[in-house]
Structures are given as C-alpha cells and as structure tokens.
Amino acid sequence: MSIYVKPILLGTLFGLMSGIIGYFATVLYLSIGQGVTESSELVELLRSKEAMYWSMPFSFLALLISSFISSRKLHTGHYLVTFVVALVVCLSITLGPLKIISIHMNYLPILIGSLTGAYLAKKINKSSQQDGSEAAISA
C-alpha cells in the first residue's frame, strides 16, 4: 500500500494546483473579454454558466494529465490511485478551502478525465512492458 502514497500525493497536488492556475487564467480571460470594471461584475461573471462551461474542458484535461502522471509508473492499481485522486479533488472543492476559488465546478469532467488518464497510463505501461519482454527474448 505504501507504493500508492507517492502517486496519490503527486496526482492530488497536480490536480489541485492546475485547478488554481486554471481558475486565475479563466478569471483573467473572462474579465478581459467581457470588459469587467467592477468587482461585483467579476463575481457575477465567475458564478455564471459561461465560466462553468469554460472550466469543464480544462477540468477534464487537468485531471487526465494528473491521473496519467500519478499512475504512469505503476504496474497495478492504476484505477485505485486515480479514484483516490479524483475523490480528494472532489472533496477539496466541496468541503475544503478551495470551495470558493476552484475551476472545477462539475464532477463529471473530473471523473471522466481521471479515468481516461488512468486508461492511457495503463495502456502505455502495458505496451512498454511488452516491448521490454520482446527485447529480452530476442537478445
């Protein structure tokens, strides 16, 4: 079980940090694009459906990369690590201090991105193991 702690921490850290960076990038993009001048307009803009729609593809991509990074070197337990990372990210934006500043406003892209990243990591890891075993046999 101790082999899973480092990937879980790495994936969670990357997922949360990318969410914070994405939040500020979305704020900057939407405020410049909309010409927001007052803070009350900015708050309304950030709680709007438009901000949520901008955050969905970013959430998917951020968690795909996060789960790929966290589970790429594992031989087993890809989906276990990914599930824990997605759960921690979902809990941190629901209950934690990141509830107010979070790019992740929907759980669906988080879950789908995490599962896709784990699937890709598993496939790449499996193909590299097969390549290594074929090279060892032919030598």
Keywords:
5 helices, mainly alpha, single chain, disordered C terminus, 139 residues, transmembrane, transmembrane helix
Describe the structure.
- The protein is mainly α and 139 residues long.
- The chain has 5 helices and no strands.
- It has helices at residues 5-34, 39-46, 49-71, 78-94, 107-138.
- α1 packs antiparallel against α3 and α3 (49-71) runs antiparallel to α4 (78-94).
- The longest helix is centred in the C-terminal third of the chain and has 32 residues, at 107-138.
- Residues 135-139 have low confidence and may be disordered.
Order of helices and strands: HHHHH
Query: Which spans have pLDDT < 50 for at least 5 consecutive residues?
Result: 135-139
- Overall geometric form: elongated
Note the main sheet: none
Helix content: over 70%
Query: What percentage of amino acids are in beta strands?
Result: under 5%
- How far apart the termini lie comes to 35 Å
Count of domains: 1
Structural class: mainly alpha
Count of distinct strands:
0
CA-atom Rg in angstroms: 18 Å
Mean pLDDT reading: 79
Number of helices: 5
